[in-house]
């Protein structure tokens, strides 16, 4: 038996018309989805969704993928859990109306089927197609005749922090948590109590409910804290030796091998030999790419600004400025620079047959290869230039750069040629006799003033000109639209991740972005509806 396709009726029933009339500001998206579900989930897109399933004739017939896709959007809109979403298909008339199951007394699908559908979306990259479908339909239906076939776009990229869902722990708790995972895995494999493994392996500290309770010291006393660390480290080493002796083959097989890798990673990143008294101590400084959570191994320490720190991820979006549509999404660990996400965003945009004509970014993305690609294709990059500061001395901005002649001229009128990506040093003899020396440089005798020239200095030079004119500053302000989209996403999703791991959080961001696009489509369609114009492009 083939997969059943979802074909809900297009015209509103009398009951649905009453519901739509009663829906105010809080329920208007339900009404909009009911009225336009056949456009979003048309026959062609439902066929794509059905491609996630193999038609073998075995097993149960799946719930229509189109219905499950709509339920997935509703879940993101309502912020409901899987279990709650199943119940809402019975008790919430708004959900029933959108899913075409008004009056049903049984759930439209099971929790297991809903979970399975989400993982199929992720595995087959169909969450990306769902986002792309909202872009495609919204661009076709919005009332901008000149833009409906436009493929060269004004695109803005920005990011925001996302606190991870995994628990963030200090060094002692990380070690204890990682060791506990190993012990639990061994106990399950041997089919014996965890307490017996702890006793046999010589790690009794894990018999208590928490590592610090098992160590039981005054954590305000530095020496006691150091002894507790030595005790925990010795017991962890005892566990490793016991495993090598008693389970030599099992330690190389998953999942135990993965848990042991995590334990080794945490030890390596957080401990170092103690030069004073043997043993180990907590490492000075933060290890590169330090793991902060056992439950979510992809979370990292990050900074959004000099004062704002967070643990988790960065969410990146690319927005079409003219239509307020989110074209692409990416999630990266919090410690990765913004520029790394730009290429993935560009790739997703180009998948849709779209090109970036004007790129609006902040300085975090300026070194991305995407910037160079946009310029090579004749596009334009709009961004604030890096500022130049030099204390009380002349800043770089006081020097005149002639990009065509590749020369830099100091405030005293002396010129020097430069090469992109290198440091220019003015003649020491001229600097020594210059009347402006005290205002220009504090270099030692025999040295002249230096000026760093960036590899992308021509771009920086052009960007600096933007801030000097009202028209240029107005163009820079256009990027605020993407900040508004991020604020809306933050309000919808919250500041904390719903899932663990990058890929699942990419799915959640794409779903939220799809909903945001539908709301933009709805908002732009409202004026046309008020003037009696059709809301569709058909």
TrEMBL record:
<dbReference type="Pfam" id="PF05598">
    <property type="entry name" value="DUF772"/>
</dbReference>
<dbReference type="GO" id="GO:0003677">
    <property type="term" value="F:DNA binding"/>
</dbReference>
<dbReference type="Pfam" id="PF01609">
    <property type="entry name" value="DDE_Tnp_1"/>
</dbReference>
<dbReference type="GO" id="GO:0006313">
    <property type="term" value="P:DNA transposition"/>
</dbReference>
<dbReference type="InterPro" id="IPR008490">
    <property type="entry name" value="Transposase_InsH_N"/>
</dbReference>
<dbReference type="InterPro" id="IPR047629">
    <property type="entry name" value="IS1182_transpos"/>
</dbReference>
<dbReference type="InterPro" id="IPR002559">
    <property type="entry name" value="Transposase_11"/>
</dbReference>
<feature type="domain" description="Transposase InsH N-terminal">
    <location>
        <begin position="38"/>
        <end position="120"/>
    </location>
</feature>
<protein>
    <submittedName>
        <fullName>Transposase, IS4-like protein</fullName>
    </submittedName>
</protein>
<dbReference type="GO" id="GO:0004803">
    <property type="term" value="F:transposase activity"/>
</dbReference>
<feature type="domain" description="Transposase IS4-like">
    <location>
        <begin position="297"/>
        <end position="516"/>
    </location>
</feature>
